[in-house]
Write a structure and sequence with these properties.
This protein is of the alpha/beta class. The chain has helices at residues 2-16, 25-33, 37-71, 77-126, 129-133, 137-179, 181-228, 230-235, 239-292, 298-340, 399-406, 429-435, 450-455, 463-472, 476-481, 498-512, 528-543, 560-563, 583-588, 593-600, 602-606; strands spanning 360-368, 374-383, 388-393, 414-419, 422-423, 436-439, 516-520, 552-556, 568-573, 576-582. It is built from 21 helices and ten strands. Bound molecules: adenosine-5'-triphosphate and magnesium ion. Adenosine-5'-triphosphate binds next to helix 11.
Length: 607
């Protein structure tokens, strides 16, 4: 169900994306092709060379025919041999040059596309959470991968095929015009007419192919949705119904596919062949007419027919590529739209922060994810360097949101957050990330080695340090059980207990040794043994770990055992501070909410 729900808006957005105007293509090509100047030059050379050789080869044959026609058996053998040799050389070298051309074209295309893909991925990572919340991972994959792949074909094929074909077409017509004005003019007219007919008739198929693609994507999303909800389908005995619906989708797809193929067959057989048969007819009649009036030699008539045959490929290619181009411009439109988005959380110019634990000030902060639905309202408090705040509150009261503001996943809609009197918005994002360690409510582990999961791919951290930190967190024995030690590849968060995953997240923070720690406790209940292990790890985290100094810490607490160790307590209620004070004082005051929580138990009161 979730997959399908996510699909809906994505489809709608895809359909709504406007194709980019064609003039946007040039800056993009320039930007990604310019760094590959040498290779692009080689590509252009191959393109022109290949076309020239393709046009030259029939000229040899034409001269050959003329010599034989004129002198019969008395034709000079040496010239005949050399013409034959030149023909073979032109054809062979032409093939090699085209081969080299397709190599350069693929290489240029892939390089450009990969750079674009990297740029887009970097851009998406820099965009803030409000952007990512509004989009499914699937949609981003489609943009960063799907749309870029279709642009890759522009970089290579568009340049190589359209340009190559256009040059070939122009070359053939130019040579013909020079050699025989009337033949050239006739074939130029024919080319224009053929192109118009081919292009118009191809369009006939477009709605049919679109209908087929639509049926295909409906089938895919049907399968995706039902496979996603397999548990529910099975448990409720919906299998038969699902298969019947699948049959329906399949029948639609088949019917539309067959209709599209039928039209394609009609197009290919009747129109395309018809056009070129007519072209041949025209060329032959013209040839016979001119030959009889002695206005063209036999060799020239041969050239006329040969070149007419050679016109087919570029004409068809250009027609086909122009259609692809329309699809590509839609991709380009989506890519440009994505590139034009800029992050709302803007990095500051940088600050001269020391590594020590700062005083945190939250000054009249309000925040809403969506306009008109405040999640935090006028929250103000401060936390002394090295102190620990236990943040409590019902589910949805805004605790996690507050931690997100402190690490600048979002910026407050009003108010300011300061470390040691300096607004955090003034720091660069890298400074802030180095300064603030975060353990989120549900820890994300990647399908990567334990080492990479801990260091985030920073190879400068020595193994001994990793082992030390894991041992400190009581994960030494666990590490010992892993077949390849730190190189063991984790299968994401699966295969680890909640306690192990949490402590691995602690290890990440330990390695960073930040001055501020934001710890969002997992709200799931833990068994007593795991709880003890986590508590011990938390204590170490609060104690400052190997840095010695105590870190300024905010713990979103879901367990009483955690709350016992903090200096201060703050209770949030619907985004406002309901109570805030030193833990000892609040615990001693029987009238405080906190002491009521302590006697009744957090879970009972807060959930
Ligand atoms: P819990 O104890 O369940 O973790 P919490 O106190 O951490 O709850 P928050 O996650 O801060 O609560 O959520 C506060 C409010 O903001 C909730 O109403 C929630 O639905 C909403 N909210 C949280 N994250 C988002 C988001 N990314 N986009 C929109 N609304 C959100
Ligand atoms: Mg939360």
């Amino acid at each position: 169900m979730t997959a399908a729900a996510a699909q809906g808006p994505r489809r709608a957005r895809r359909a709504a994306a406007k194709p980019a105007p064609i003039d946007q293509l040039a800056p993009l090509l320039w930007r990604y092709l310019r760094p590959q100047g040498a290779r692009v030059a080689m590509l252009a050379l191959c393109l022109l060379g290949g076309v020239a050789l393709q046009i030259v080869a029939p000229q040899m044959t034409s001269r050959f025919i003329d010599l034989v026609a004129r002198f019969g058996a008395a034709a000079p053998a040496r010239r005949l041999w050399s013409l034959a040799g030149l023909f073979i050389a032109a054809t062979l070298i032409g093939q090699l040059v085209r081969l080299a051309g397709s190599y350069f074209s693929a290489s240029v295309g892939w390089n450009a596309a990969n750079r674009l893909r990297e740029d887009l991925a970097r851009h998406c990572l820099a965009l803030d959470m409000s952007f990512h919340n509004a989009r499914t991972p699937g949609e981003l994959i489609e943009r960063v991968d799907g749309d870029v792949s279709s642009l890759a074909s522009v970089f290579s094929q568009f340049v190589f095929q359209i340009l190559g074909s256009a040059v070939l077409l122009a070359g053939i017509l130019a040579v013909l015009l020079v050699q025989n004005l009337r033949i050239g003019a006739a074939l130029t007219l024919f080319s224009a007419a053929a192109f118009a007919v081919l292009f118009a008739s191809r369009r006939l198929g477009t709605p049919l192919y679109a209908a087929e693609r639509q049926a295909r994507s409906e089938l895919a999303s049907f399968v995706e949705e039902r496979v996603g909800g397999l548990d529910d389908v099975r448990a409720n005995g919906g299998g038969g119904h699902v298969v019947r619906r699948l049959e329906g989708h399949n029948d639609t797809l088949t019917a539309r596919g067959v209709r599209a193929i039928r039209v394609a067959a009609v197009y290919i057989v009747l129109i395309a062949n018809g056009v070129f048969i007519a072209g041949f007819g025209l060329a032959l009649s013209l040839g016979v007419y001119l030959f009889q009036r002695r206005e063209a030699s036999l060799g020239e008539v041969y050239l006329l027919i040969q070149y007419t045959a050679m016109l087919r490929q570029p004409l068809e290619t250009i027609g086909g590529q122009i259609q692809d181009l329309q699809r590509t411009m839609a991709s380009l439109g989506r890519v440009l739209e994505l590139q034009a988005m800029s992050p709302r959380v803007r990095p500051g110019p940088g600050l001269a922060w020391t590594g020590a634990s700062p005083r945190i000030e939250v000054d009249r902060v309000s925040f809403a994810y969506a306009e008109g639905e405040p999640v935090l309202s006028d929250v103000s408090f401060h936390l002394e360097p090295g102190a620990t705040l236990g943040l409590l509150g019902r589910t949805g009261s805004g605790k996690t949101t507050l931690t997100r503001l402190i690490c600048r996943l979002y910026d407050p809609t009003a108010g300011e957050i300061r470390f040691d009197g300096e607004p955090i918005a003034k720091a660069t994002l890298a400074q802030l990330h180095a300064h603030v360690g975060v353990v989120t409510q549900d820890v994300q582990l990647f399908q990567a080695s334990i080492r990479d999961n801990l260091t985030f791919f920073d190879s400068a951290i020595p193994d001994a340090r990793l082992q030390g930190v894991l041992a400190d967190l009581g994960l030494g024995a666990w590490l010992g059980r892993q077949a390849q030690g730190l190189d063991t590849v984790l299968q994401g968060s699966g295969g680890l207990s909640a306690g192990e995953a949490q402590r691995l997240a602690f290890a990440r923070v330990f390695l960073k040794s930040p001055g501020v720690v934001l710890l969002d406790e997992a709200s799931s209940r833990l068994d007593p043994a795991t709880e003890r292990l986590i508590n011990r790890a938390t204590e170490r985290l609060l104690g400052g770990g190997d840095a010695g100094a105590r870190r300024t810490t905010i713990i979103v607490a879901h367990r009483l055992s955690t709350v016992r160790r903090v200096d201060r307590i703050m209770i949030l209620e619907a985004g406002r501070i309901a109570e805030h004070g030193a833990r000892a004082a609040l615990a001693a005051d029987p009238g405080s909410r906190f002491s009521r929580l302590l006697s009744a138990g957090l879970e009972e009161v807060l959930s």
